[in-house]
Design goal:
Layout (H helix, E strand, L loop, with lengths): L1 E8 L3 H12 L4 E5 L6 H6 L1 H18 L1 H5 L10 H25 L3 E4 L1 E6 L2 E5 L5 E11 L3 E3 L12 E2 L1 H4 L8 E5 L3 H12 L3 E5 L11 H13 L3 E3 L2 E8 L4 E7 L6 E5 L1 E4 L3 E3 L31 E3 L10 H15 L13 E3 L4 E6 L2 H7 L3 E7 L4 H5 L6 E7 L5 E8 L2 H13 L4 H5 L10 H9 L8
Parallel strand pairs: 1-2, 1-6, 2-3, 6-17, 8-15, 9-10, 9-15, 10-11
Antiparallel strand pairs: 4-5, 5-6, 7-16, 12-13, 13-14, 18-19, 19-22, 20-21, 21-22
Helix pairs in contact: 1-9, 3-5, 3-7
Length: 466
């Protein structure tokens, strides 16, 4: 039996960051991961490969549409989908090798296999050849992530009916791609294939896209995507899917009930969300049980079982890589006897469509439900000089501030490169900044970031740029 200070189950953003931090703090750490590469869903078949395809498809559309021509760049591009997929895979491979390097640098052992908790401080790892290794540890961290949520009546085969992994590796551009679910994954991957030439239809059970985001920002994003050619069927449910060698026939009907219809597609992407990966971990051997969603409860990352910790998608909070990373650092700090905290109120979220949508803090809907008096400052990218020059004026910056104290309560950005700009407000809100603090802070000109300042200025009606 190999003895460790901490054994981490899962090598995704939560797991590998926990392992690296443990090594930095001088703990003897092992990370158990059964994939052939480290990085988990995010790096291998999620965040990173999707961003590679989003970037490539945006450039392809710019070259094939009017964008390059309007800039005086005349080209006649052709799509080499195999090469696009290859560069995506090469980028991902480079990142996974980087994690392996950090493991070696910080003396973390990667135990290749699937972990099972056999009792307090005991983990058995089953390797690909069916051999087993027994580990003991003072502390066990569960960071096993999540998997796509299945849809009753629609069986994923990754031939014609795809999950997100299958949609990232198609060998042809679909004639018609139907996306079930108007959340982050569905909209991002739908955008990729629409830009590469597919007809895309998004079906959503609710009456709006992106549930949970600021209502005004969500409506703006839907309008933008509709103008790009994505069709939406809201308040609609899918009740069945019959695949064939050449496509899929879906059965759909109104969410509130009504007449069923058939909808034909070449491929179907099921993207209705993700669920915690907690089955088969041996939780019962340490007296743990999940809730009905499959999640594990925690108090400052500690479970009810002594010496067992939990981070990332397997516990409450948004299923986001950066949330898992924050929890990883805090969890290991606590294991090492240090003080640590995660501010769950200020975890930003981003939808990497074009335009992007980025948010942090409260939405208007939440503030109204709380009965909290607030002020709104808003600034459109149509009035931002850099955005106008770059022909990317869709969207706005919106700041919500407390009516009495002026403290920033929420920020919602939809527009160009807002994923890179939301961090400014994350920092500001961590220090309980007021809208006036941002309004009085000089921003470089001409930049898109000036819209953030102007929105803060508009809280008091002081916006100056047009």
């Amino acid at each position: 039996m190999s003895n460790y200070d901490v054994v981490i189950l899962g090598g995704g953003p939560g797991g590998y960051n926990a392992a690296i931090r443990a090594g930095q703090l001088g703990l003897k750490a092992a990370c158990v991961e059964g994939r052939a590469t480290l990085g988990g869903t995010c790096l291998n078949v999620g965040c990173m490969p999707s961003k590679a395809l989003l970037h490539a498809s945006e450039l392809y559309e710019a070259a094939t549409g009017k964008e390059f021509a309007n800039l005086g760049i005349d080209v006649t591009p052709t799509l080499n989908l195999a090469r696009m997929m290859k560069q995506k895979d090469e980028s991902v491979a480079g990142l996974t090798k980087g994690i392996e390097f950090l493991f070696r640098k910080n003396k973390v052992d990667w135990i290749k296999g699937w972990g099972h908790i056999d009792g307090p401080g005991k983990v058995t790892v089953t390797h690909a050849d069916a051999s087993r290794t027994e580990l003991s540890a003072k502390d066990i961290v569960i960071a096993t992530g999540s998997e796509p949520t299945p849809l009753p009546g629609v069986t994923i085969d990754n031939q014609r009916i795809l999950d997100s992994t299958g949609a990232l590796s198609l060998s042809e551009v679909p004639g018609h791609l139907v996306v079930i679910g108007a959340g982050v994954i569905g909209l991002e991957l739908g955008s990729v294939w629409r830009r590469l030439g597919a007809q895309v239809t998004v079906i959503e059970y609710l009456d709006r896209i992106c549930p949970g985001v600021d209502g005004e920002a969500g409506k703006t994003l839907q309008r933008a995507l509709a103008k790009q050619g994505i069709a939406f069927k809201l308040s609609t449910k899918v009740t069945g899917a019959v695949p064939s060698a050449s496509g899929v026939q879906l059965q759909i009907e109104p969410a509130a009930g009504g007449e069923a219809q058939a909808l034909d597609a070449d491929y179907v992407l099921v993207a209705i969300g993700r669920r915690p990966y907690t089955q088969g971990l041996g939780l019962e051997n340490v007296g743990l049980a999940t809730d009905k969603r499959g999640m594990l409860a925690h108090q400052q990352h500690r479970t009810e079982a002594p010496g067992v910790w939990v981070i990332g998608d397997v516990t409450s909070g948004p299923m986001l890589a950066h949330k898992a990373e924050d929890e990883a650092m805090a969890c290991i700090e606590r294991i090492a006897g240090k003080a640590a905290e995660v501010n769950y109120e200020l975890i930003p979220s981003v939808i990497y469509t074009r335009p992007e949508l980025a948010s942090v803090g409260r939405t208007e809907e939440q503030l109204k439900a709380e009965g909290r008096a607030y002020k709104v400052g808003k600034f459109p990218f149509t009035a931002n000089s850099r955005a106008k020059i770059n022909h990317e004026t869709e969207g706005f910056a919106k700041v919500l501030a407390d009516e009495r104290t002026d403290e920033i309560l929420g920020v919602h950005l939809i527009g160009p490169s807002v994923s890179e700009m939301i961090g400014e407000y994350c920092v500001a809100m961590e220090f309980s900044a007021s809208a006036e603090d941002i309004a009085l802070t000089c921003h470089p000109h001409p930049t898109r970031s000036e819209a953030l300042r102007q929105a803060a200025m508009d809280v008091e009606g002081m916006a100056t740029q047009m």
